[in-house]
Amino acid sequence: MKILKKSLLFLLLAFILFVGYLFINTLGFDSKQISVTPVTPAVGNPQAIDHFAEALKIRTVSPEKSIDFDSLQFGKFNHFLAETYPLVDSLLDKKIFNSFSHLYKWQGSDSDLKPIILMGHLDVVPVIEKNLSEWKVDPWAGTIRNDTIWGRGTIDDKVGVVGIMEAVEQLLSQNFKPKRTMYFAFGHDEEIGGRNGAVAMANYLQQQGVKAEYVLDEGGVISEGLVPDMTKEVALIGTAEKGYLSLNLNIRIEGGHSSMPGKETAIDVMSNAITALKNNPLPAKITIPLEQFMEYLGPEMPFLNKMVFANKSVLGPILLNVYESTSSGNAQIRTTTSPTIFNSGVKDNIIPMTASATVNFRILPETTSDDVIAHVKRIINDDRITITKGSFVSEPSKLSATDNAQFNTLNTTILQLFPEVIVTPYLVVGGTDSRHYGEVTDNIYRFSPIHLNKHSQKSFHGLNERVAVSDFYDAIAFYVQLIQNSNQ
């Protein structure tokens, strides 16, 4: 009996000490938000929204098949930039790469200062013809309705291209003279990997010996209700992005007549392989970008959330379970597995001899494409299935720092214009053109000053893509302020 009492007392004491440890860590979990004095946003050109609408009418679609590329539309966008922004076109040094990607250089007065690079991309994904009836407006009309501008490219990413161009044109008209040289890089094929746009421009800058202070591209946004349990808006600054790998799976075995099926068909084997991959994903883990996200957001959350984030070293399994419960959370903690294409069969009474599938993986930092391929081979474990890489492979990006002047400039600019938001670094689960600039700078950040909620989030690459007119003008003000802050 005495032994039982001692054991219970020991367990009680251990529990008290554990809870005390959790509380001490929580109480010492201090805010990383900085104090910034708000500024009055620069007033944009009233005609800017009409310029944006014109840009949206130009169908700069990056198709999957090169034969479907419409060079006339991209040539029209070239003309749009030159005609709409005459000061930028005449006063800045301009180079065009592979006919349609634009690199502008605004020479600064102090050659000792490293340049900055602001990026965007002018190409968009297609609008699926069979879904046109589900659009509330014509996706190529640049319609403004109810203080919102609609159309393919409003979010991804003509708001960045036009926002930057409006900001620079405005500053030029005010005779602003930068101390720091600035580059503005607009790719024309980001949606299909950026080989002819971003890659060409990044290679050129590297050959010129350019080492940039920082690069800013699309990626993060101002989140409205997308971060669970956060009542305030959250400005998400991407400090890293996941890698990209598609694997093509193929099998060829005996087919025949559907009236006499064998024990296994090509469809059976491929289906089982896909099912195995879905049922055995790569392991979940908390990477450095997610740790940073927790360090910035945790102190601003309700007490229980704050306690869990403050004690991630001991409560990691709980955190992983929470993140796994949603698709967006799961994308933050593991390399995702997404079967996207499956082909087999041509007639209902013929058992096909072949089957093929494509599986897309978005690779977590601290993992490589070789790790993914090894995992796939081990899980499928069937020599009849051949596995080949897709034409485009991108490893996860390097992690950009948050404890430097470059991140602070971006953080400060956001809070000057959006003083009520919480700012945090995070991991971008998609891909951006900035992935190609790793040799040009160590500091790559991904942020667009637009608001997204659970409804509008689904619209880019989907139906009814749109942004608020106020968001567009906020974007212009943001780029104006960022350029000024970067030249102080």
Could you walk me through the main structural features you see in this protein, from its secondary elements to its overall organization?
This protein has helices at 2-27, 48-57, 71-84, 86-91, 158-173, 198-207, 266-279, 288-297, 303-310, 312-324, 327-333, 369-380, 405-417, 469-486; strands at 93-97, 101-106, 116-121, 144-145, 148-150, 182-187, 214-223, 234-241, 243-252, 256-257, 336-344, 350-351, 354-363, 386-394, 422-428, 444-452, 466-468. By secondary structure, it is of the alpha+beta class. Strands 1, 2, 3, 6, 7, 8, 15 and 16 form an 8-stranded mixed beta sheet that branches. The protein has a 4-stranded antiparallel beta sheet with strand order 11-13-9-14, covered by helices on one side. It has a 3-stranded antiparallel beta sheet with strand order 4-5-17. Strand 1 and strand 2 (101-106) form a beta hairpin. Helix 5 (158-173) crosses helix 14. It is globular and about 80 Å long.
Overall, the morphology is globular
Class per helix and strand makeup: alpha+beta
Instruction: From the alpha carbons, calculate the radius of gyration and give it in angstroms.
Output: 25 Å
Per DSSP, what share of the residues sits in E-state strands of 2 or more residues? 15-25%
Average per-residue pLDDT, rounded, comes to 94
Distance between the termini: 74 Å
> What's the count of strands?
17
Helicity range: 25-40%
> Which runs of at least 5 residues are low in confidence (pLDDT < 50)?
none
Largest sheet: 8 strands, mixed
Please tally the helical runs, counting DSSP H or I stretches of 4 or more residues.
14
